[in-house]
Design brief:
Order of helices and strands: HEEHHEEHHEHHHHH
Shape: globular
Largest sheet: 3 strands, antiparallel
Number of strands: 5
Number of helices: 10
Distance between the termini: 5 Å
Helix content: 25-40%
Structural class: mainly alpha
Radius of gyration: 23 Å
Amino acid sequence: MFALCCTAVLSTVQANAAPAAKAVAGNSVPTHTVQNGDTLYRIARSAHVAGGWQALAEANKISSPYTLVPGQVLNLSSSGGDSGSSAEASSTTYTVQPGDTLYRIARTYQVPGGWEALAEANDIWSPRHLAVGQVLTLPDGSASPDSGDSATSTPAKTATPAKAATPAKTATPAKTATPVKTATPAKAYANNLDGWIRESLAIMAQHGIPGSYNGIYRNVMRESSGNPRAINLWDSNAAAGIPSKGLLQTIQPTFNAYHVAGTSWDIYDPVANITAACNYAYHRYGSIDNVNGPY
């Protein structure tokens, strides 16, 4: 259980802003030296890397769990170099529905730069709450919402009707309009422990938070036996009025401090609880995989 005071932990893990990229002497390729607290996302955003953190990871052959080591030198050769935002607004919009989160919307409509770019394009800051009916601008490069969706979007142009054939000539068949590409549906996750863990891992990958399926599963079974409504009402945290709750038995102050944007603020929400706990374990122990007993 997360018995450690969150304030003390936070003072030791403040993320350093990624400094500007610099070129190695005699070499035009820009690089960045990893600092404590750096993540692929922060570096890619600061250096305006074309393709975002995924392109940065690929260029440097960094795979899941996307762990960075202080002093590690990253190649930023794919950086855009401009100072503008990588998620400028476009004319395509989406209307928020019940249950929507920035993460799910960005994933559904393939927003370049992910939910962070979507939040920036709409001036949404912490705690990044969405309201049903709120109209969001989808950045350039995003997929258009399906016609059956309640989201609003710039309608596709209809095909220009073919001109009538000159009587003496055979009419040339009208060209069929190129169909508008629809967004790839968001991956569906089962509403059970397996699905919760897999969805959490997908969100963690977006934020550079390390962890494996087995590491999460092992700790969940020890802490709550897989019950998302589990609560500890007998230990010192409970006596202090902040009982441990949820799949990974997180106390409310720790959940609030390590909450990952784009997930629910409900501590009992399985995906939000797992993701926040793994974020805490990342900063405290290096990874949830390194936790083999009570926190």
